Amino acid sequence: MPAKDLKLTVYSLASLLALLLGLEAVLRLAGFQARLPPFRLPSPPCMVLGSCGEGNRGLFEKKGSLLALRPEYYGWFQEQEFPARKPADEFRVFILGGSTIYNLFGQMTNSFDASGRKVRVVNLGGNSFGTARLLPVLSEILGYEPDLVLVYSGHSEFVDITIVNQFLETSPFRKKLGELLRRSRVCGLIELGVYKTGMGLMRVRKRHDNGVVRYFGTRLRPGTEKEKVYGLYRKYLAEMAKQARARGVPLVLSTVGYNRVIAPLVPEEARALHRTGLDLLRGGKYKEALTALNKAQDAEKIPFGANETTNAIVREIAAGYKVPLLDADGAIAARAPNGIPGAETFFDQCHFNDSAFLGELFRKEINSAIAGSK
Question: Would you state the CATH architecture of domain 60-209+217-259+306-373?
């Protein structure tokens, strides 16, 4: 490179660096701190096939007499706190799952049962979290004196495995660089802009056949082959059952409700099954329609959400480990028109238009557990 061009490049980089440092100083003086969740693993990422609370920083930290969600997990989980030492009159429930459970926060408020015992519900629905990262969350909360743990997870398995694999494949240098950049207010401002833009795009309704919202890619990534992901799902659910049993904590596994009428993206085989199901539905052949639509969801290249295969795995683990099963999917289907949940229940593949019914199912399960503990 000619000396003149090299000098120009150096001056340009120096000017850019000075501009960024100046902006960093202004943001720090103004007290700016981005509080919205970025599109990355929270720091430190203890929830990657590891164990929170055992040499790593877990979800919760001690604040006086309380356990409070660490700030780095705001946006990934609902911000909440509870007594570190459980009161004698408290029945403590933890609900684990993905964004569907995260959105259930307002439906599951703390209350008192008929005997005056306080029911405390801790919502551990993590946005985009599947069983790979919920397993270490379970390991942590088993030390917080739970009386009951409910698990409703099955929508984010392929997303979860992708996030885990990306973390495991990241070099130590990139991890250290990421930790350094997270402290920057300028990077926080950029991430805030990315987050708001992303959330705005998520609200754009892209129509696919039946007009339901879909936001999902179709490119398989290494380690996300369907049978491998299903195998890991089975493994992690089984490990949850074993850990809860070892600690003497009642655990309930739930099947997961999903939209049967939404159109798969790929392959064409799945789309053809879906069209057949819709034709049968319009023709009033509801049982045959449900069978075809279930097969269409199972045949999708990268399932974005639960399906008959994942729910069969839940039932298998519940039966094999003698864990109580809450058939939420069956209850949701029973109240859907013709027994086929669609756009009247879900606004996309897995998120409810109104999650009150799911909250009611959980409350009944909690009341049953309280009655059984007396």
Answer: 3-Layer(aba) Sandwich (3.40)
